[in-house]
Amino acid sequence: MALTPRIAIDAMGGDVGVRMMLAGAAMARHKHDGLRFILVGDEVQIKAALENHPNLRAASDIIHTDGVVSGEDKPSQALRKAKSTSMGLAIDAVKRGDAGGAVSAGNTGALMAMAKLALRTMPGIDRPALAALLPTLGDNDVVMLDLGANTECDATNLTQFAVMGAAYARTAMGLERPRVALLNIGTEELKGTDEIRDAAAMLRAAKGLPMEFAGFIEGDKLSRGDVDVIVHDGFSGNIALKTIEGTARFVTDLLRRAFTSSTRSKIGFLISRPATELLKHHLDPNNHNGAVFLGLNGVVLKSHGSADAKGVANCVHLCAELIEKDITRQVTEDLANFRSGAAA
């Protein structure tokens, strides 16, 4: 039976803060009227923003706090004031069971530290991983993890990420047997670090998992759609993610400059507008907003700090879907099966 989604929103997070976070939550509820919310932050600001969203106001409770985690706060600083900040109290609502998941657009390092301390990692998980869906040329998006939570990973960490990423792909994309690959500098078995080669050997030997190990994948194939899950350490993953985002902005800006360079170009733009609108939609990061911390005993999602209302709504939708499909149970079961297979 599907779980009823109740989501705690860190209303003070993000570049814009309360207004954008609540506009996104309201947009999500218009499409999913079963959603309910706990809005955490300054009560005066929250109530003022809710005046524009009566549908959201009717489905929300407010937890007041003046404390906010800034973008400059180190994780250690954020942890010391966790119980008095909007981010910390949103995560605490998940820990208490008052909410099925939490969404924040605030400081990523602080969010990771607070979530890990409050919710703890699942049995059999050494480190949580940050996972996100990115667009491809294939029929499905691709799950990439880790995207920055762990800069250094051993082979065991990478295999755990693979199992969690496959469970996420099955939950978020409805795939029965996701194709999983390790990011490497080549596809040959001898390429890469000892950690990557050892992880590949462990995944090839794994039996009974609802996934297919596709070997190694190189950076120029990330968006081809040849695989469904791409696994890497957080250092490589964060560089890859920022490179993809930067390339998308480069292509968009280059096209804009080209189409405004002359009268003939402007006419060409009008003729090709349907195609360029499709490209714009595909490259818009708001359409794929929302990264989830996998491996925790609870659902916590990170929204991009600069996301607009549509982006926040997509993140909230993803959070609701993961709650409804019980991603925590899916990952727990797959990890148990992986350990059993490895022991056998």
Largest sheet descriptor: 11 strands, mixed
CATH architecture of the largest domain: 3-Layer(aba) Sandwich
Helix-strand pattern: EHEHHEHHEHEEHEHEEHHEEHH
Q: How are strands sequenced across the largest beta sheet?
A: 3-2-1-4-11-10-5-6-9-7-8
Count of extended strands: 11
Which stretches are low in confidence, meaning pLDDT under 50 for 5 or more residues running?
A: none
Number of domains: 2
* CATH homolog superfamily of the largest domain: Isopropylmalate Dehydrogenase
Question: What gap, in angstroms, lies between the N and C termini?
Answer: 33 Å
The geometry reads as globular
**Structural class by secondary-structure content:** alpha/beta
> Class of the largest domain in CATH?
Alpha Beta
Question: Cα-atom Rg, whole angstroms?
Answer: 21 Å
Content of β-strand: 15-25%
- SS summary, helix count: 12
Helicity, as a percent range: 40-55%
The CATH topology of the largest domain:
Isopropylmalate Dehydrogenase
- Mean of residue pLDDT? 88
Please describe what this structure looks like.
The protein is an alpha/beta fold. The protein folds into two domains: 1-125 and 295-324, 3-Layer(aba) Sandwich (Isopropylmalate Dehydrogenase), CATH 3.40.718.10; 126-289, Isopropylmalate Dehydrogenase (3-Layer(aba) Sandwich), CATH 3.40.718. It is 48% helix and 15% strand. It has twelve helices and eleven strands. The protein has helices spanning 18-31, 43-50, 54-57, 75-80, 86-96, 108-119, 155-173, 194-205, 234-259, 263-283, 309-324, 327-343, and strands spanning 6-10, 36-41, 60-64, 101-104, 129-134, 142-145, 179-183, 212-217, 229-231, 291-294, 299-302. An eleven-stranded mixed beta sheet has the order 3-2-1-4-11-10-5-6-9-7-8, with helices on both faces. Helix 1 crosses helix 11 and helix 7 crosses helix 12 (327-343). The model has no long low-confidence stretch (mean pLDDT 88).
